[in-house]
Amino acid sequence: MFVPHPPIILRHRHGAEWMRHVAGHALHRQRAAEARAAQDAAWRLLEAFLPCG
């Protein structure tokens, strides 16, 4: 199958630029997971003080 114009990600991400792109996504996922863990920990701490559980 012939694709006249490859997707932008294939046209513009090469070598080190691609590695930075992938590393940026990994860092974003890691920070999001850390934020969720902090939010869950805060909620568990607060849950003990809620009257209705």
Tell me about this structure.
The chain has about 55 residues and is mostly helical. The chain is about 70% helix and about 0% strand. It contains 2 helices and no strands. The chain has helices at about 10, 15-45. The protein is rod-shaped. The N and C termini lie far apart (about 60 Å). About 0% of the residues are buried. The model has no long low-confidence stretch (mean pLDDT about 80).
Furnish the topology, listing elements before pairings.
Elements: H1 8-12, H2 16-47
Order of helices and strands: HH
Instruction: List how many beta strands DSSP finds.
Output: 0
Gross morphology is rod-shaped
Largest sheet: none
The separation of the N and C termini measures: 58 Å
List keywords for this structure.
53 residues, mainly alpha, 2 helices, 0% strand
Short description, anyone?
The protein has two helices and no strands. With 53 residues, the chain is mainly alpha-helical.
